[in-house]
Design goal:
It is built from 4 helices and 9 strands; from the N terminus they run E-E-E-H-E-E-E-E-E-H-H-E-H. By secondary structure, it is an alpha+beta fold. It is globular.
Amino acid sequence: MYPEDLKYTAEHEWVRSPGDHDGAVRVGITQFAQEALGDIVYVSLPEVGESVTAGDTCGELESTKSVSDIYAPVSGQVVARNETLDATPELVNNDPYAAGWLFEVVPDDAGAVDGLLDAAAYEQGLA
């Protein structure tokens, strides 16, 4: 059910390596997370150039039901954000693994992604 080529966090973020920028990984939220949130109406993302710390809050997703924090899956510097979400935040619901990505970060530790959950472990954690 969850793409095998991604890594996951227990907080329902996914990481795709590599991202579009040199050394970067792309971050988004999982199908499970977007379904739990409901219709997303606003997205607050970290700024390009901002440093994020693994496990810390770095943004928010606001839905018709609640506001949910976005957690950084790895520590590093943000090099891109999905500006399209400013006008069309519903992309996070409609296409969470492609057009609904959130931001890209260059990890401080290139091996940090390897320590995240694989699809099977993430899915098992949902059970």
